Amino acid sequence: MDNPPKDKASNTEDMESDNHPSPMDFDVYLPYACSQLQVEAVIVVTKVVQQEYVSISAMSEKSKSKQKGKQPKMPSHQDLDSDQERDEKSVSPSVEDEENVINILAVYDANDNLVQLKFDKNKNIPRTVLRIIGLIIQYQIYLTTLCINKGMDQYTIYEICRFLPLSHLTDICLDSCFLKEANYHMLLEKQNCIRQLSLARCSISDEVVQTLAELLVYPLPASKSLSILNLSSNRLTDLGAKYLSEALRSNRQLSYLNLADNMISDAGADEVLNTLVNFPLSFNELLSSRSRHMAYLKEKSELVIRIARELRTGDFDRRLMKRKSVKPPPLAKKPKGVEKEPSLKSVVESKSTTNMDAAFLDKATIMAENTLGEFKDPFNKANTFVQDGIVYSYGNNALSYLNLSYNNLSYTSVKKLAKVLAYQKKVDKKPRGLVNVSIEGNFLPVYCRELAHIDQILDVGLSSHQRRVSSHKKRPQSKPSAK
Predict the structure, then answer these.
(1) Rounded CA gap, 209 and 218, in Å?
(2) pLDDT digits over 115-128, tens only?
(3) In a domain, 133, yes or no
(4) pLDDT tens readout for residues 248-270
(5) What pTM was computed for the model?
(6) Sign of the CA dihedral 417, 419, 421, 427?
């Protein structure tokens, strides 16, 4: 029996369902989903493809191979911006002047993978748009950067925090986004993949920095993940610098700190620089470090016992299976004079059992150490020393870039910085410590002995760092010349 024919309406619905965009196509799916949920805004997603990077050395070799011809021109930032503007105008010329337009720039790499999202100069970003992004962001495994420069509110940070655990976002840029609630700290409260956080020009005060700095103290989650923090062009004073210095005492992950264009004086700079040299540990710091060490030893002991038990059980099972498979030979009649042989055999077996237990324990200890690794702590034995009965830390040697430009520093900070660099060079720990410092735009002398000393140490530090980086790079293979 034939199936009854479908009407035209059902056929149209089937065709529309087949033509639904996939969440993998972000620039098409997001406007479609927003229209289906009747978002009161026009979503304009502009797709931009990154240009492949061409090194200057490769360009010079290419130009040498050609005797005639013009040298290729590297694309500048202005050229890229102009190309993006032309793309935006070509895609959305009709909605350019509307007020309820949400402009989103979707940047793709050469392999057509979404790598960056930029909300560009929007008046107000609807909460529903961020919720939809949270539902489909798990499909964009190459998306690592999120930039918003306008249109945020307190719920924007909340929605971003909701989809952060599902995403692969490592860079968050919220420059020029002032929030009255200033709840930026929510981005650092839970464990995520954020490595870089930029909060420039957000009118951040010392109170806001205090909440951020408290989340950067070891062993909180952000102290083990965040490497770059940009707080330039805000309203930080010496009090805010003191809050950050308290976090730098134990934080060994943050390597880039930008405090340019604030209101920090020599007192605030001194607070930060004092964490980069040796300092005595407080009672709470020493107690917390020993508590973490005891917790590590307890976890290691429990793991060793569990592994040794598993090894012994597996060895016993193998022996039992071997005894069942091999039949023992018939026992011969023993002379009556030998009566103490069974007792001697039991002594040998007890000794072998003890040796086996020791072997299992040694093997389990090695396996546990490989699983847990060494005890890493900012105040462990490798990072501290005892002098006159007081435990001192060698200082923070993980911070490699510090920007204090355009503050209220004077010659006093220059002398302090020179002492810090000389100390880090003398201690010579790995990582090295500061390799790049920016102090321009302050009330500094044009030339002094300390500035020359700082330039000399930083040049040595940067050159040694460049040598380490270049040594890990693979040497380029020589290509046969074209005939």
Answers:
(1) 17
(2) 999 999 999 999 99
(3) yes
(4) 999 999 999 999 999 999 999 99
(5) 0.79
(6) negative
